[in-house]
Fold these 3 entries.
Entry 1:
Amino acid sequence: MVKRTSPDQPYTISKREFLEGCAAFGGVSAVMTALNGWDMGIASAAEAPPNLMGRSEGTKVLILGAGLAGMTAAYELGLRGYDCQILEARPFAGGRCQSSRAGFTTTTVDGEKRTCDFDEGQYFNHGPWRLPSFHHAVFHYIRKFGVPMEVMVQENDLGYIQHDKANGPLGGRRVRKREIKADMRGYTSELLAKLTDQGALDDELTNRDREKLTDYLIREGFLDAKDLSYKGTLHRGITKFDAMGTNVMTGSKAFAFKEILQSGLGNSFQGVTTIDHPATMYQPVGGMDQIAQGFEREVGEKITFNAEVLELKQDKNNVRVTYRDTATGETRVENANFCITTIPLGILSKLKTDLSDQCKEAMAAPRKMTVGKLSLQMNRRFWEEDDNIYGGSSTLGIPGHTVIYPSYGYCGKKGIIQSAYAFGRAAIVHGELSMGQKVEQALERSERIHPGQFRKHYDNKAFSIDWHLTRFSEAGWTAWSPPDRQKHMPVLREPQGRIYFAGDQVSGLPGWQVGAIESAWAQIEKIHASVMKA
Amino acid sequence: MVKRTSPDQPYTISKREFLEGCAAFGGVSAVMTALNGWDMGIASAAEAPPNLMGRSEGTKVLILGAGLAGMTAAYELGLRGYDCQILEARPFAGGRCQSSRAGFTTTTVDGEKRTCDFDEGQYFNHGPWRLPSFHHAVFHYIRKFGVPMEVMVQENDLGYIQHDKANGPLGGRRVRKREIKADMRGYTSELLAKLTDQGALDDELTNRDREKLTDYLIREGFLDAKDLSYKGTLHRGITKFDAMGTNVMTGSKAFAFKEILQSGLGNSFQGVTTIDHPATMYQPVGGMDQIAQGFEREVGEKITFNAEVLELKQDKNNVRVTYRDTATGETRVENANFCITTIPLGILSKLKTDLSDQCKEAMAAPRKMTVGKLSLQMNRRFWEEDDNIYGGSSTLGIPGHTVIYPSYGYCGKKGIIQSAYAFGRAAIVHGELSMGQKVEQALERSERIHPGQFRKHYDNKAFSIDWHLTRFSEAGWTAWSPPDRQKHMPVLREPQGRIYFAGDQVSGLPGWQVGAIESAWAQIEKIHASVMKA
């Protein structure tokens, strides 16, 4: 986990882009405030599953939840002779590793069913949606199961920024991200180059180093090498293309430095992208659910679907799980030597268990992250055809709103745009809207980024998920405060008798698939060690 | 075309990345020098073919060359009733729009045949290989012909830089591009923030603007908000990942500012990518030749293959083309009302024609760009599995050498790496090497970027193209000097009697497919106007 006192704080947040607004308007301190209570990170410690020596034929392990953690445990233990059974409350495998496509149905905590009606071939990753390249544990199974991968465009400099509340002439004006990036780096390079030229760094740098610095600044900032000034650059954007012309391109005019400063739009990017959100990330071809399906091909026969766990008890030799078959209403009991539970802590803490008070306190400690998303089907890819934007995003700086373009199906006829990505308070508000209200809000807002296009090309098909209102999830992910994590995580990581906790919720990376998989790796290693010792 | 006196000059060059070395070692002036005689640009004037009114049933147009220009002309004129025939010297369509894959054969000017033996599913775009999103003319046909597209990763911050001749401790050291980027932007932000804090900009900026600037610099440079210093950042790179740890990530240590300055490695990037080489570019799924095949599906029956043009004559009413059927050796003659020639000017200028002296002078004026490429099949994707690099490139700063990773087939078993991309003198030298020498040179060099991996995993399959030594091309593209362009292009753009010149060679964008297509659009418009007037 990223330490909250490090200077890196503001950057980890860009994982969920809604804070761009805070940064642009309130500067660093606003971002720092917004970060409180947040829990973000990245990574991958192990690159391969634990190398478990020996087999254990017939030891029965009951796994609660057929998400990536549960299926990882079943797959790996199965290879070592364990008899695994997975109880899954939903009628499908994958946990939150879902993609909305024609026929996909999600159920809310109130029992409302939302079925996606996108056209054939159109889909949206409404759960996890992007992988950085060093999440080795996920890539391990992607390779093993032969899941084809493609680029997910995280950063596209051609995306738009428009902040209606920004000060000065740029307030409410739609600009390309690269215009701001080029101008800010140009003007700041000019300032430093000129100050250097005027002797401001004579005490700090040698002549040779100042010369090298100036060379760098000229290049970095697209400066005029003679007078060290930034006069704009073709590379900030072009207003005219003429492949047959003497001048093929005409560059756009740079914004005034003070105008950008006033607007705060310069705070929408950084020296490098955050480590966990590089410009190019990765996604399975055909939808994130292809990862879940890769696992399901291997362990599908071990899964009992529609199995809602009601009770979790254990004695010295045995774990007993009572569950309800939601299809028939029948109540059933399963016994096993061990149990791995990936049930969201917020849900498990409300069930009947004989777990210790310390463990119950730990389960109840974290917050449930509220997260809402909305995606809209468009009948024409105007963002590609008219705006030259293929993947990436645009932003109005409104918390909860976004315009995220699809990173697949380029040059096709239709496409799915994500138009809401809300967290915290914004997600609660978003979740309370009706589907019609959500769509209207998204159209009204997104129309400002794509005037005359967004509403016109909306194809009357939308899909919305509110993870905190989704049955059997009740949260986007588990949000730990640092003190709670420090206090309670050790309890949840250790065996509670014959019961082991897994899922991204007990990893250092809640909300990331790598956390789910590595949590399973960690727990099966403990179970196996215990079995081998016996 | 980009004006050569603009401060943007160094950046247009990055199209062909070999100049990175010059920039890093010699600073701006070296790049400026290297630019002399160069001809680079981007763009797309027209977004759709000319809207030609009326039809001309039966007017015969003979098109020389089934590259993108020739096929565009045949396709568009065919829609208006023209009787088009294409004479193509090669046994396949597409011109330089080629992909090397199992069975693909290219022939050198000496008659040597090079056949690609890559494994099934492996391919390499040895001609055009990337499209920026605003090359509308190309995207127009991609959409029309339903060519599936995907991202071509132009910039990947995880790629390596290693400059053996760089000064100081970083000389010969392999570093990630993002480490240099983060550190340079960090240190320069620190310098400017501190100078600002010390009052250096008090005369230039208001208090409020200085505060805004400082906010920006803290964010841009990952500075410590308290003392405005750059102390490194997690986002430059991580040395340890632990998804189950309390500290998920451990950041790597920043390089010393003076060490980077001395090394010149900071000159390997700029404030924004060049406009024609954004971080994400685009390529057809399955190979660039899919664009050629899209055209061929439409106009394939109009093409006469193996037709090597020998002579081009015209009188007042007729164009007469004599060609040799290279398969049978027979000589044949075709007559037509008009002729569009896309034959490389350097080749056409050597044929028998009755073109004017002025026109002959124009055809002989441009240089033939020497270009060489080499690609190697690897039996394991070590760059993905071991180095977390999916697409993008690494560089040693050696002219002619590169390590370009494939932007397709991620997480598969094998992959094709481009290990030479040579221009000018370097291409001539490269072209004189035997295949074995080329491979050995590439392995020796690339092994420095991927020690212990590159040579070990080379799969003994390589393909090489030297465009200047390729039959019926004899150049990578046509290189115009600005004065020659100014003097001769108007001649080539105007009808020479009944003969019209097309191809990227007469556009403002030699070497780009958009230039080829738009040249055809421009010329068919003139032919049609002439026919309609008659």
Entry 2:
Amino acid sequence: MEYVLSDHQYGKAETRLVRIYRDAARHQIHDLNVSTCLRGNFADAYLHGDQANVLPTDSQKNTAYAFALERGVAELETYALALARHFADDIGPVRAARVEVDEYEWERVQLAGDDHPHAFVRSGQEVRTTTATVEGRGPEQRVWVVSGLRDLILLKSTGSEFAGFLRDRYTTLAETHDRVLATSLIARWRHTYPEGDWNALYASIRQVLIEQFATVHSLALQQSLWEMGKAVLAAHEGIAEIRLSAPNKHHFLVDLSLCGLDNRGEVFHADDRPYGLIQCAVRRDDAPPAGPAWDAPSSFAG
Amino acid sequence: MEYVLSDHQYGKAETRLVRIYRDAARHQIHDLNVSTCLRGNFADAYLHGDQANVLPTDSQKNTAYAFALERGVAELETYALALARHFADDIGPVRAARVEVDEYEWERVQLAGDDHPHAFVRSGQEVRTTTATVEGRGPEQRVWVVSGLRDLILLKSTGSEFAGFLRDRYTTLAETHDRVLATSLIARWRHTYPEGDWNALYASIRQVLIEQFATVHSLALQQSLWEMGKAVLAAHEGIAEIRLSAPNKHHFLVDLSLCGLDNRGEVFHADDRPYGLIQCAVRRDDAPPAGPAWDAPSSFAG
Amino acid sequence: MEYVLSDHQYGKAETRLVRIYRDAARHQIHDLNVSTCLRGNFADAYLHGDQANVLPTDSQKNTAYAFALERGVAELETYALALARHFADDIGPVRAARVEVDEYEWERVQLAGDDHPHAFVRSGQEVRTTTATVEGRGPEQRVWVVSGLRDLILLKSTGSEFAGFLRDRYTTLAETHDRVLATSLIARWRHTYPEGDWNALYASIRQVLIEQFATVHSLALQQSLWEMGKAVLAAHEGIAEIRLSAPNKHHFLVDLSLCGLDNRGEVFHADDRPYGLIQCAVRRDDAPPAGPAWDAPSSFAG
Amino acid sequence: MEYVLSDHQYGKAETRLVRIYRDAARHQIHDLNVSTCLRGNFADAYLHGDQANVLPTDSQKNTAYAFALERGVAELETYALALARHFADDIGPVRAARVEVDEYEWERVQLAGDDHPHAFVRSGQEVRTTTATVEGRGPEQRVWVVSGLRDLILLKSTGSEFAGFLRDRYTTLAETHDRVLATSLIARWRHTYPEGDWNALYASIRQVLIEQFATVHSLALQQSLWEMGKAVLAAHEGIAEIRLSAPNKHHFLVDLSLCGLDNRGEVFHADDRPYGLIQCAVRRDDAPPAGPAWDAPSSFAG
């Protein structure tokens, strides 16, 4: 045969699920966006239109809801892992399953300093994320858990330089020893073991990232990212690797000299596009192999 | 002549401006989106392509930057008003100016409980807004200030009903005495006088809105909005009117009975579209006339 | 009583509806986004949580679907008007109804020059819009129909100037006699009578707008808009008024002189923000009153 | 050392560039979004804040503009390849460069059947894309070119089934032998050789994809994708592999039976989320290795 079906996968993307814990007067809520993705013995659906092995994406959606009800979602990674294991264990044609979950954070309404039992306000810009990947079943089953966040928007109004860079024919940028540094961080960290005190770990890593961004005197966004990544590994032995993607959200000093004004680092234009994009991975030198942990549906989409 | 130029206005929209106060080691930042809009004697630009009366939108942008530098932006309404007054007072052909400003909130990075002096994290989903409108100059000058917020996302996991409604041939909805109520609130309040302790007022009104949403046992989103609006007027004598626009962000209970599960108000689908849209205005019975306070560029755009 | 419920309205927004005509082998499709909005005797829902007069937004959604099935959507304005009249005529507490509909255009797949009977590709960027407003019932009933489009993205690579403008202290812009002019047009036109050959009229007005944008040598975007609006009225007696909202999507010539290159109007940066925003209305001098024709839910939202 | 900087890359993303050809009265325009990304000897910037090897992203942006001026952009792939080769050949520390370019399509304004020489309307929803990747320099230099499109929105109103699928405890979906099939296609194809008649090839492949979507009687979206991919390879010998990513944009038949109406495949709800997501790659069995051709910045971002 001349043409080959190579990589293929399918699933249900973006099931928007809110789980409410209401067994006590003080409710808890979890607001999730769940995507499931299956790999396995599905070639006949492509080659012959035969669905005998295809578990409908609608069933995957129902499973996401049912697991949220029966097993709960109090720890994001535990929920994602249970769902991925179910597909790998219980659905015959599945060889690997990946479950990605975003969580949107809410905080409890405060009334005169007290928590309201069942009213909430969306908080923060950032989204907590996790990806659980399960391959195989039985004793050979392998599992990877990646946690992370995105849209964590950070800004330093000083403590950032950019100088001493390579120059070519097209270089017109001036050096600076005091600039605004801002980014909308995406961070994802891979766990050595598929278990942990997930919520506490998330809170701690988020804080380490923010603290390093704040306290490192930055000679380049690259340097900030390296220090942020290294600090996370230093603080948490169970993290094998962390990957960081950081747009350099440019803040340009507005030139008001033609209006007779001297703008000494006080008024900036927050530009939309283009932006620098700095990306790196920091890992332990003895980190276990990443396997498919970092794969994502976007590998098909560019 | 058969055809008439009726309403017309022009300006510079969405100047993204960050103002940093750096005279002390502890910096302050304000992150704004400024839109200016002028009305006046501009017909010749339309009818004859004559720009003699047209202050370029580029100059309006520069003015927004220059005022941020010289006059500061510590109180959003004060900045918007100064800018609008400048256009009305100093630019000959202008008969009315409107300045709309959005502010994105940042919180200071915390390190071991202490504030960092120059590192910040974007906080909250909501955007603080203001519109200052100035008509005329000299003793006849009139001024309106509207403050507000948008994208304040609220959810109650209980304490909301919807029953006893009108039924027609197309009504299939079941009554409910316990549902999730969620919205992404837009609120705008008009001040009786163009002065105030703007920042404190904003914080207080935001809290009143949230508290009422939380504590009113809701028989309809309409009722919640009325109580929210009324409470704002009751708490602040200087507010003449408040307008509320609230999508009913539907959370549908997922039916898992076919999967053999009994979902008693625990797992919901957060739907995107369509959504209910409930809107109302609450005013003092002795409120001064609104004039052009509520006008917006969108009146041209539908 | 000290506080007054003033303006209020409610409805179902953004019902995404696809209607397929399949009575012949050659199918027709219409892809709509329908929003309904009711005004009337609904104060008790706000003041007392009493829904006796409130037709659920869910029923409004069902009605939008049912009318699409029974009455069809082949002419957008006819569908919107039928729906609005139904609410005003048949739902007791309703005093006024407004129905807004967006239509997304599809074109038929071509195979070797022939139309495919049931396969389609989304075409164009622009969205066709309509708003039907109905007040009262019986002989006193009044009706307004507004049609329009948005996101019609236009660009001229020459034939546009901007010079001779007013200068103030903040003016630094250079005059230009050859620039790129680009916009993403919103146009809405009000019909004198609530009937017409809607689809043909839409196609004609869209073409008039584009032609005028192309052929008017522009001394300002303002002038282009006036000529575009005037030409629509001149071409179609049944149009009472047209309103145009046009961002000036700035294309800045890139200065490459520091790289030793002379960029003579060939390479531009297409900037995102800020943008000029030019808006005007052109009407017949004998146009009937607009009444509530131009009102929109956004009047609550700013 | 315990921590290792592993993968890292940086560049300038989303330079929005419009190139106008104006040497003849009949202008040509190309509207691009250019992203550059460099890999190489940049570790010192991360580890020590030393920029000696770092070509600023601002210089990369200038280079994108300068190449658009000097070399032109008439064939997207040729431009991307020239830019990537320049970084790999001329910037010392660079070991590999990847240039991604999106192109937005415009069509010429028509006046009475004639082309207007310099006025244009944005056309179509879809975006043409390319990625050129260059590794090494001199005789060892290797090059990969991927072309593609995204946001090609397709719909069939019949000719699609979904039945005979695997059922588990969570399966509640009914089988169907006549449904609406709709997607927003992302397709990317890898060229065997880095040269070709790029514009003609793009037009042909786009048409093949659309035709296959239209004419294949679909037993599953999977089957449609396979046939689409296979047909592209069959039509063009120079294509080594094609990757397809297709959301199943669900159109749910609206149940109007409670309103007394029989909806026989005529009125559908176009749902937003969740959606099925079907992805596959089809390649020649003798395709050369893909190397880094499919890598994307998103591999860092999940």
Entry 3:
Amino acid sequence: MTRLGGLILIVNVVVLPGLATADPLPSWNHGEAKSAILSFVERVTEPDSRDYVPFNERVAVFDNDGTLWSEQPMYFQLIYAIDRVKALALRHPEWMDSPILKAAMEGDVEGVLAGGKGGLMEVVMASHAGLTIEEFKASVRDWLATARHPRSNRRYDGMVYQPMLELLRYLRAEGFKTFIVSGGGIDFIRVFAEEVYGIPPEQVIGSSIKAEFARTSDGTALRKLPELNFIDDKAGKPVAISLHIGRRPLAAFGNSDGDLEMLQYATTGGGLRFGLIVRHSDAEREWAYDRDSHIGRLDKALDQAGEAGWVVVDMKRDWRVVYPFELQQGP
Amino acid sequence: MTRLGGLILIVNVVVLPGLATADPLPSWNHGEAKSAILSFVERVTEPDSRDYVPFNERVAVFDNDGTLWSEQPMYFQLIYAIDRVKALALRHPEWMDSPILKAAMEGDVEGVLAGGKGGLMEVVMASHAGLTIEEFKASVRDWLATARHPRSNRRYDGMVYQPMLELLRYLRAEGFKTFIVSGGGIDFIRVFAEEVYGIPPEQVIGSSIKAEFARTSDGTALRKLPELNFIDDKAGKPVAISLHIGRRPLAAFGNSDGDLEMLQYATTGGGLRFGLIVRHSDAEREWAYDRDSHIGRLDKALDQAGEAGWVVVDMKRDWRVVYPFELQQGP
């Protein structure tokens, strides 16, 4: 802030790199998906457009797993949870009484997945509960710094999608407020969302276990409890959007049937709206899966995309680059 | 956005009214409370201060009832709920079977309050449930436009505190993000918070009943259910802050024991922190109540204020003006 001649003058000058005619989405190949994004944004932001939307209504919501970063061979948060159960196993002999936790301790992923959603929740709760939120975040931060993805041998938070990073940045430059609305854990995502996606913690919505306010030796904290609070998936997504944001989003981005109701909610408001599905079609650079996958199943939402007018991104065809590290490797 | 010479240039020039040396809090009398606010803000925002806090950590949380607007003779939302129960009474003969709803239908406020928190919830649920959130908001908007406070004969949303409006504006001008954290209903407050307080819906946190995602004749909606979701009061406030904001606030503002844990949470983080309690000491211009009041009881928090270092605002002594309409009336 500069104090000039008795006036308080706040001047923010943001100069985007390159020319105004430069492509805001350089990692997207030219095609229908890219054109649809650019056209939508132009129509809602040009002041003399009949589809113009004021700044405070420009809300865009993004799923995380499979939409902003990869989710194979399984949700990254589950890999963290299993790693943590393994590390804590010696302190919890009682975990041997649970087939699911026993499987987790032995690194038997199939055994964990065999328990369905209940099994996932059991592993998440065993690994998360009892920690204060600050301790939990430190634990995730340590894990992100040391753990490596089995196929890429990269940090997990390096396996975000370069085209989606560009899309987030582009929307924000055009006055959108960007939110994550994920089935994953709200505090897990908050550890890296600000640095990696430019999305602050208050714009991250996700699943959660309950927490209680506690006095600690040096003050106060929130401590995680082994009790489910909210599953932010399917019809839970519009419910959470309404609770946390309080506005119907103008645009929604997802990749699976877990995002179906969020896409419906965003795109059935009045006026011009935008829905987009990332389809995992690239077995070489990423993964190829849809209707038959246990993780990120895309079936009903794909059937409804045509009639609803949602853009379906074919990762193989539409993305010139998948991960940021491809750019660092040079041509 | 202006496109100049191939560059995208975003220039925001915010010129605050008056001189740089002008008082950002003109409705606050000079005294300890005002000095403490100005000193805190200066210490955390001056770049060369050893208490400097970066922009993204500048989070300030405000209670609503009794902190940003009046709450006497009872919470304004309860007046709305009773008005609505009365208006709907003919359509709900079954409400006569409930002593609480019968009292509400007859405008017997004492009878409603005699039911304690359970009674309040019964009236709120009867009046809110079944509506989509959009219908509910329209109903609150209509009520705000027509209902008048029994003492001031003003619109309820005209009974906000001018000194707190100035404080909200001042904090935002100094880079703070301002949030409401209220025991009142999240969707009720969102109807007027953006226009009256400059606080967008996504920065309003409050109590809520559950909602479900529903298909409607013309699209989709969230429909309120007659089931409690969350009470954002006492130890619930830090829990909600953690869930919605995901950061420990740097400053907290309240007026009752319902804000005690929020004040504790905000002011026990590391570094310089700020807590403030509005004490209702002005029976002439507003109301005078504290330890013995059923609404907005201030007892434990007042006892702890000294040791915790929280500023206690004496409304009668510290506020030159209480309501904005006093300014419109001229000197």
